[in-house]
Amino acid sequence: METTTAAVRGRARLTMVGGAGVGEWPARVRVRTARIEDAAEVRAMHERCSPETRRLRYFTSTPRLPESALGRLLVPADGLSLVAVGPDGAIGALATLFHPEGERMGEVALLVEDGWQRHGLGTTLLRSLAEHAAARGAMGVRAHVLPWNRRMLALFERAGLVGRCGYEDGVVLVEAELPAGALSTGRCA
Fold it and tell me: Distance (Å, rounded) from C-alpha 179 to C-alpha 126?
């Protein structure tokens, strides 16, 4: 599946100044299903992320993903992953949905390269994951988030997902029911 989001493209045009270099927000972004062939680009994106960005995603700042983890993230056995690709082929974001058959909730996780953050891409990716989760029969999505990761906590609201927040093993567990139809304006209740 391949989607191009007009809102993301439009906002990128307003934000972009000059040509995009590695790690900068490109003028156009294409979101598509990840493939195992994306491993080198995703690895490069991961290594371009700051230690803090990696820590917020993986709860560790490890500079390099093990090959086995990379394969599971790109092509999860029970779910799917999306990548955001710039016009030069550089990948700037990876969003993953884990949803084993028969489970009520899908687990979502996102990693957006530092220079690609704050342009609405995470919101677009989370909405897309929620739509895929609903298509797979999930009733909701959840994410484990470090308590100080305020941007990820706010992301559910921006994506129109009404969530419940609680603590589990020292991290915030955000759970959001999937609305019927279009995503609503969300909040963490």
Answer: 14
- Distance, in Å, from the CA atom of 112 to the CA atom of 110, rounded to the nearest integer, reads 6
Let me know if residue 150 belongs to a domain.
Answer: no
How many C-beta atoms surround the C-beta of residue 67 within 10 A? 10
The type of residue at 119 is: H
Distance from C-alpha of 10 to C-alpha of 27, rounded to nearest angstrom: 9
54 assigned to some structural domain: yes
What is the model's pLDDT at position 21?
A: 41
Q: At what angle do helices 121-135 and 6-15 cross, to 10 degrees?
A: 170
* Token reading at 26: 């490109």
CATH number at residue 56: 3.40.630.30
Q: Which domain holds residue 95?
A: 2-139
Kindly report the pTM of this predicted structure: 0.80
Tens digit of each residue's pLDDT (9 = 90 or more) over 48-57: 999 888 888 8
CA separation, residue 155 to residues 47, 81, 145, 161, 178 (Å): 23, 18, 11, 9, 15
Whether residue 129 is contained in a domain is answered as: yes
Query: Average model confidence (pLDDT) for the chain?
Result: 80
Q: What is the pLDDT of residues 111-125, one digit of tens each?
A: 999 988 888 899 999
Task: Retrieve residue 35's tokens.
Answer: 């493939």
Nearest alpha-carbon partner for 26 in 97, 112, 111: 112
